[in-house]
Amino acid sequence: MRRILCFLSRALVLFVCALPTQLKAEVPMRVATQSSLPPLLHEVGIDQKLNNQIPLDLMFRDEAGNDVRLGQYFGQRPVLLVLAYYDCPMLCTIVLNGVLHSVKELKYNIGREFEIVTVSFDPTEKPSLAAAKKAIYVGLYNRPNASAGWHFLTGDEPSIRELTQAVGFRYNYDPQTKQYFHATGIMALTPGGRLARYFYGIQYPSGNLRLGLVEASEGKIGSPVDQVLLYCSQYDPATGKYSVIVSHVLKIAAAATVLSLAGLIFAMSRVRKRAAA
Q1: Segment holding 56, helix H or strand E
Q2: Exposure string for 236-257, b = 16+ CB within 10 A, e = fewer
Q3: Which residues contact 123 (CB under 8 A, 6 or more apart)?
Q4: How many CB atoms lie within 10 A of CB 124?
Q5: pLDDT of the residue at 39
Q6: Where are the extended beta strands (E) located within the chain?
Q7: CA 80 to CA 209: how far, in whole Å?
Q8: What does the alpha-carbon distance between residue 15 and residue 3 come to, in Å, rounded to a whole number?
Q9: What is the pTM of this model?
Q10: What is the mean pLDDT of the segment spanning 163-175?
């Protein structure tokens, strides 16, 4: 028992020490006021514009490079809208992974009960990059009709700006790092293109997602939800510039792990004392 306690104690210390210095340095910053954030993050976020009609006449390009009207993906089924640029170094891929994980748990099928429209908000990205992303995620989803129901679009700046403003997705571009500062989340829309529900973060419980799709399919508009924002940005304390992910969820997960280890150590210590008594 003593060896186990010693091992767990060391593991706890190692876990805390192994947390990235950057992550630990960011904790005060995440609980600070808006004014303490770097300028490029001041206007970054996702506003809930429930019941807002998105402009369905906007033109984009599909994975094959064809000009497509946004409205052609609406009309029959509810739509999950995912805003993520394909060359994002971290969070956009995590968002897409979260979407994939959730929809794989659903009995509903992409292309039959609902559609997914993924739109890059980087106007420099090309259809070839969208096609590569689609091949990965449709392949991992591995269900019939997925290719016809999960769309990966690119577009020009005016169309991107109009769409992101309509859904409340606010982001900034950093010309120095050539990357985007943005928050994470997805939206469920009615077949007619009205915003029905927002899902924040990088994980979307399949039960909540299913309910959101059912309500959206019936034209129902959900209620506002609490915002848990993750910022895809970059920060280096040595230079005072942003260069790594600022992730509130990762901190919560780390804290939960530390507390769990501490609780286990305490419980085993009580057992040991009782045994000795």
Answers
A1: none
A2: eeeeeebebbbbbbbbeebeee
A3: 154, 155, 156, 157, 160
A4: 11
A5: 64
A6: 45-46, 59-61, 67-69, 79-83, 115-119, 150-153, 169-170, 172-174, 179-183, 185-189, 195-200, 231-232, 235-236, 241-242
A7: 9
A8: 18
A9: 0.71
A10: 93
Q: With beta carbons less than 8 A apart as the criterion, state whether 171 and 184 touch.
A: no
Is the pLDDT score of 260 beyond 70?
no
Q: How many Å apart are CA 168 and CA 49, to the nearest integer?
A: 6
Is the domain covering 39-228 a CATH 3.40.50.1370 domain? Answer: no
pLDDT band at 5 (very low <50, low <70, confident <90, very high): very low
How remote is the C-alpha of 114 from its chain's centroid?
19
| Distance of alpha carbon 118 from alpha carbon 4, whole angstroms | 48
Question: The tokens 């599909």 sit on which residue?
Answer: 62
The whole-number pLDDT of residue 239 equals: 42
Contact 171, 44 (CB under 8 A): yes
Cα gap 270→268, rounded to integer Å: 5
